[in-house]
Amino acid sequence: MARPALSREEVLDTAAALVRAHGPDGLTMRGLAAALGTAVTSIYWHVGNRESLLDALAERTVTDLGAIRPHGEDPAERIASVAHALRRALRERPHLVAMVHERGLTERMFLPAHRALVREAHAAGLRGERAAELVRAVAFQVVGYVLVERNRERAPVQSPADQELWDAETADADPPLARALAAPVEADRLFAASVRALVTGLLAGATAPAAGDIGDKPDTGDGSVGRGPYSQ
């Protein structure tokens, strides 16, 4: 049976899967052709050479992260939802995100999430420097947390381990604390707690704007915010 006609999207999907599994260095045109069951010349026809292919993968990663949309009943919930969605997106595609960074597209990749955070900061009543502080603090929290997670996952076995470190004096003074610190880190729970505390602190004292203000403008889906300073 003849193979169905190859499409550009199929090439990019397969290439992205190879990068996720083996990193950019594991993506070769011959390996990609083998995975697709086609000739290398066919891949060149659809996406050009390897550098063009990597550029296309980087651009698609930028687009994928632009699909993040907030959800929740109030600005605090929606800000937290952006943080959780951004963390998932970064963890799902670390090699692709690294490619984006190497091509100088990091700020553009994060821009849609930043704009979503701006809308929610405005909806909560924050303006100017306080709104900017919220956007950057949440973004730094997410990126920093993901980097720590990845470093912990790739770290060699530690000796002494946490269980050995948190006994003796700490166990005598506060046994539940010693047991908790000796237990494995619950990364999802810890991230949720840290984001909740961060957002609560940043929104403290904020006053929601009156109906019709910029914060109440509907999400147009293109990153624009009415006629405010973040419009394009």
Quick tags:
disordered C terminus; mainly alpha; Arc Repressor Mutant, subunit A; DNA-binding; 232 residues; 0% strand; flat; Tetracycline Repressor, domain 2; 2 domains; Repressor_TetR_C; single chain
Question: Can you lay out the helices and strands and say which pair or pack?
Answer:
Elements (H helix, E strand, L loop, with lengths): L7 H15 L6 H8 L3 H8 L2 H16 L9 H18 L1 H9 L3 H18 L4 H27 L7 H4 L3 H5 L1 H8 L4 H17 L29
Organism: Streptomyces roseolus
Protein name: TetR family transcriptional regulator
Keywords: DNA-binding, Repressor, Transcription, Transcription regulation
Task: Briefly summarize what is shown.
66% of the residues lie in helices and 0% in strands. It is mainly α and 232 residues long.
3D architecture notes:
The protein has 232 residues and is mainly α. It has two domains: 8-63, Arc Repressor Mutant, subunit A; 64-216, Tetracycline Repressor, domain 2 (Orthogonal Bundle). Helix content is 66%, strand content 0%. It contains twelve helices and no strands. Helix 4 crosses helix 6, helix 5 runs parallel beside helix 8 and helix 5 (75-92) packs antiparallel against helix 12. The longest helix is centred in the middle third of the chain and has 27 residues, at 128-154. The N and C termini lie far apart (50 Å). Residues 214-232 have low confidence and may be disordered. Residues 28-47 bind DNA. Keywords: DNA-binding, Repressor, Transcription, Transcription regulation. This is TetR family transcriptional regulator. InterPro entries: Homeodomain-like_sf, HTH-type_TetR-like_transc_reg, HTH_TetR, Repressor_TetR_C, Tet_transcr_reg_TetR, Tet_transcr_reg_TetR-rel_C_sf. Residues 5-65 form the HTH tetR-type domain.
